[in-house]
Amino acid sequence: MCTGDEPVSYDEAASIGFKVIEMADRVKVADKVLPGATAKWCFAMNDVKYDVVVTVRHGA
């Protein structure tokens, strides 16, 4: 990913978005077998590290 304070490129933003979509697809299947399953991933952007956790929302 990027470093410093430069803006995130379109390709980098798309890569992050596609990864989150992939996580959602995988956790949807896993949640059917093991309710409450999570998909976890981390990435760095502008020298800051982020954790992403995707779960299936149940109920409202």
List descriptors.
single chain, 60 residues, alpha+beta, 2 strands, elongated
Topology record:
Elements: H1 10-33, E1 38-45, E2 48-55
Antiparallel strand pairs: 1-2
Low-confidence stretches: none
Shape: elongated
Strand ordering within the main sheet: 1-2
* Strand percent estimate: 25-35%
Mean pLDDT: 91
Number of strands: 2
Write up what this structure looks like:
The chain is α+β, with helices and mostly antiparallel strands. It has a two-stranded antiparallel sheet. The longest helix is centred in the middle third of the chain and has 24 residues. It is elongated.
Short description:
Helices cover 40% and strands 27% of the residues. With 60 residues, it is α+β, with helices and mostly antiparallel strands.
